[in-house]
């Protein structure tokens, strides 16, 4: 599926004449032909190889299955980055049961990096070859590197909550979409804090990060695979430090 999505998407990336539609009446939630064609291509693979499994995709919704397993697909996570030409978007693929994801893929087609995590292993396959994934050992919030996609995060309250964590961290960065979660799994950063997510935004990152040794919950420390407010952390100590602040909101 990841290979098929790459082939569907890359011809459209950084094309000046790419048409963008807006899925919101109020605000801006872009979608392109690349989003739709990539999800169609992945669904076609599943129809051939896993017809008994369900599908939840961002662009074409839910398809019921009979196996109890669901493929959760975001053909381009970070379409705003995609239409801006930044290589921070990615293809997200997760295989999930009722308790959450058991396999995740974060694929960045333009760079050629594919981050994979399941119950047995976590690794990245890229131009430099294959390498094992492992999260960082930063234990102090004061030494942490924290990411979120939008400075406003979500609501006014959620933005305030993020800033309360960020002002205690060493470095705050913005705008990376799903690639921030990949960097956390690869041991480059310590925290990702976001809000307003859907299941297809977070299930693949959960599987990859947990396989690499990290933790992903909501802002109350509960499972986050249905989306909403999300805290991803490199280890239990840094997770607890951030969670103590976020719980207040």
TrEMBL record:
Provide the alphabetized UniProt keywords: Amino-acid biosynthesis, Histidine biosynthesis, Hydrolase, Magnesium, Metal-binding
Binding positions for Mg(2+) per the UniProt entry: 58, 74, 76-77, 201
List the catalysed reactions: L-histidinol phosphate + H2O = L-histidinol + phosphate
For the protein in the UniProt heading, the enzyme class is hydrolase
Needed cofactors, names only, are:
Mg(2+)
Which GO MF terms does the UniProt record name? histidinol-phosphatase activity; metal ion binding
Is Manganese tagged as a keyword?
Answer: no
InterPro entries named in the record: His_9_proposed (IPR011809), Inositol_monoP_metal-BS (IPR020583), Inositol_monoP_superfamily (IPR051090), Inositol_monophosphatase-like (IPR000760)
Does the record's keyword annotation contain RNA-binding? no
In short, the EC number is 3.1.3.15
Which N-terminal stretch is annotated as signal sequence? none
CDD domains registered for this protein in UniProt: Bacterial_IMPase_like_1
Note the Gene3D superfamilies from the entry.
Answer: 3.40.190.80, Fructose-1,6-Bisphosphatase, subunit A, domain 1 (3.30.540.10)
Q: Name one GO biological process term.
A: L-histidine biosynthetic process
Q: In which pathway does it act?
A: Amino-acid biosynthesis; L-histidine biosynthesis; L-histidine from 5-phospho-alpha-D-ribose 1-diphosphate: step 8/9
> Member of which family?
Belongs to the inositol monophosphatase superfamily.
Q: What's the protein here called?
A: Histidinol-phosphatase
**Naturally occurring in which organism (per UniProt):** Ruegeria halocynthiae
Q: Lineage in the entry?
A: Bacteria, Pseudomonadati, Pseudomonadota, Alphaproteobacteria, Rhodobacterales
